[in-house]
Amino acid sequence: SSLYKVDGWGGSYFAVNSSGNITVLPHGSETLSHQEIDLLKIVKKASDPRSCGGLGLPLPLIVRFPDVLKNRLESLQFAFDHAIQSQGYESHYQGVYPVKCNQDRFIVEDIVSFGLPFRFGLEAGSKPELLLAMNSLCKGSPEAFLVCNGFKDSEYISLALIARKLALNTVIVLEQEQELDLVIEISNKLCIRPVIGLRAKLRTKHGGHFGSTSGEKGKFGLTTAQILNVLKKLEHVGMLDCLQLLHFHIGSQIPSTTLLADGVGEAAQIYCELVRLGARMGVIDIGGGLGIDYDGSKSTDSDVSVGYSLEEYANAVIHTVQYVCDRRSVKHPVVCSESGRAIVSHHSVLIFEAMAASAYCAPTFSTLGLQYLVEGLSEEARADYHNLSAATIRGDNETCLLYTDQFKQRCVEQFKQGTLGMEQLAAVDGLCDLIGKTIGTNDAVRTYDVNLSVFTSIPDFWGIGQVFPVVPIHRLDEKPTVRGVFSDLTCDSDGKIDKFIGGESSLPLHELEGGHGSGGYYLGMFLGGAYQEALGGVHNLFGGPSVVRVLQSDGPHGFAITRAVPGPSCGDVLRVVQHEPELMFETLKHRAEELTDDDGNSVVTASVLETCLASSFSKMPYLVASSCGLNAM
Ligand code: PLP
């Protein structure tokens, strides 16, 4: 496990068992229940039709652990509760989950249900998100916040006001000054008194990749002058009491509590000023930014790590708000956060399979031999060849390095001019590989083909170069013998994973047991529960992965799959881009009927065509648990 740093990034949820498999501790290692679930067993049960009760779902597969989600939510709440209690803070913490991180219905419903005892709410950033949040919060605590962020048109604002009328604790957060006119106009028209928040553009700047939304030039929020205009306008229309919440967001993955405290301190001063200027303030919403340690390094100057724990984060927030408010004699506000990444990242694991690995080819020289190669070389290339040979025998690595590139370059030029054959060029490649291996510059990194689309399943890797922990989920009791990178199934050269945690450009891997093309080597991409599914596209028309929901159980395997959704069929993804699979099927059938061979028979019979296309086009059923196991629905 140390090779893959599982102890570092796995937090209290992932470990390696004595069989060398990754296990999941759904309630975290800090709880009394130390039940572990073997990930490989879940994968076999979900994907292998031959295993007992196997569901035969296609890979890649997302395995979700609602118990982990519950533990994350409770840990966040307890961290704030503890900070509040230990520091004598005179109000409470009441978080919201920003649904943009993962809008999956069951995740949102779980969060609302797990968060019921602590009035946990939701944050929406668009109309569809608002609709799903309204719907889900009907089962939440009546006090749970429904925070409405993002760009708002009159439809969005009407919907948010209706939500308030439906007794959902809705706050319309102004992101732009002009939204206020719409809020005033529509709330008057609908006779609904709104609760308004405003998003402040802080001067505090988060320097990492995710900090581009922060600072004076950030895309979102109101400047100091705009905030004053909002106050003036609200006072003018007799609605200053509606302004109750101050929001800010300095960016995701805040690396250190120093930066966090800086931002929270500035916001707390704005909060106190709003109180001084007559608003009926009650809540400070510190946005997202609670980070995840993807590489386990606990670094404070990296986009993929953070240098604090949940407890340290909560302590820093509560201490800073309290300090500022006490100095200004302002009543302590309710503290709200919009932590997304920190809540959902751990609970989803993406499983994929390495189907084939490029074998390391020992250089072969054609039957014609080296002599034939040398004879075909130009005078300069031949001189390079002799220098190279002599340097290799002497063990003079520097000269070897110098001449290898030059020699290869000259030979390629010769090939382009048509004076060197393909066999000779292959021999040149082989010779250079051999020399590279001899002097130790060629580490023979293999490429493993994996059944996955990076664009669909790990878009942040492709889009912003974010690395996630990727680890074989079994055979960890065997020493890996090769190093490799991954090539996905799309026909796009960016469809590869060649950067890993710890700054590595390849990963220690095992040989495929059944040889090339055998598959059966399963890998997991961890901590990808936030943003990846929400951002993933259908590049190359690869549909999303299959998804299973897994709960701990007392059964023989220690787990039960309570929901299974196969990835979309070809028909499903074709519909996304406006094709009509039924019509496509008819067109192809018609063509098959038209085309006959010399004897007048159809070139493809209708039944062959039907069999071939039916499974690709059909909509797969999805499965849910029933009292007697999984049933098709
Ligand atoms: N709130 C707002 C306004 C955001 O823009 C974001 C995302 O960047 C979040 C909350 C969630 O942030 P995080 O996932 O870092 O918790």
UniProtKB/TrEMBL annotation:
<feature type="modified residue" description="N6-(pyridoxal phosphate)lysine">
    <location>
        <position position="100"/>
    </location>
</feature>
<keyword id="KW-0456">Lyase</keyword>
<dbReference type="GO" id="GO:0006527">
    <property type="term" value="P:L-arginine catabolic process"/>
</dbReference>
<keyword id="KW-0663">Pyridoxal phosphate</keyword>
<dbReference type="GO" id="GO:0009446">
    <property type="term" value="P:putrescine biosynthetic process"/>
</dbReference>
<dbReference type="Pfam" id="PF02784">
    <property type="entry name" value="Orn_Arg_deC_N"/>
</dbReference>
<keyword id="KW-0210">Decarboxylase</keyword>
<dbReference type="GO" id="GO:0008295">
    <property type="term" value="P:spermidine biosynthetic process"/>
</dbReference>
<dbReference type="InterPro" id="IPR000183">
    <property type="entry name" value="Orn/DAP/Arg_de-COase"/>
</dbReference>
<dbReference type="GO" id="GO:0008792">
    <property type="term" value="F:arginine decarboxylase activity"/>
</dbReference>
<dbReference type="InterPro" id="IPR022657">
    <property type="entry name" value="De-COase2_CS"/>
</dbReference>
<feature type="active site" description="Proton donor">
    <location>
        <position position="491"/>
    </location>
</feature>
<protein>
    <recommendedName>
        <fullName>Arginine decarboxylase</fullName>
        <ecNumber>4.1.1.19</ecNumber>
    </recommendedName>
</protein>
<dbReference type="GO" id="GO:0009409">
    <property type="term" value="P:response to cold"/>
</dbReference>
<comment type="pathway">
    <text>Amine and polyamine biosynthesis; agmatine biosynthesis; agmatine from L-arginine: step 1/1.</text>
</comment>
<keyword id="KW-0745">Spermidine biosynthesis</keyword>
<dbReference type="InterPro" id="IPR009006">
    <property type="entry name" value="Ala_racemase/Decarboxylase_C"/>
</dbReference>
<feature type="domain" description="Orn/DAP/Arg decarboxylase 2 N-terminal">
    <location>
        <begin position="92"/>
        <end position="345"/>
    </location>
</feature>
<keyword id="KW-0460">Magnesium</keyword>
<dbReference type="InterPro" id="IPR002985">
    <property type="entry name" value="Arg_decrbxlase"/>
</dbReference>
<dbReference type="InterPro" id="IPR022644">
    <property type="entry name" value="De-COase2_N"/>
</dbReference>
<comment type="similarity">
    <text>Belongs to the Orn/Lys/Arg decarboxylase class-II family. SpeA subfamily.</text>
</comment>
<keyword id="KW-0661">Putrescine biosynthesis</keyword>
<dbReference type="InterPro" id="IPR022653">
    <property type="entry name" value="De-COase2_pyr-phos_BS"/>
</dbReference>
<dbReference type="InterPro" id="IPR029066">
    <property type="entry name" value="PLP-binding_barrel"/>
</dbReference>
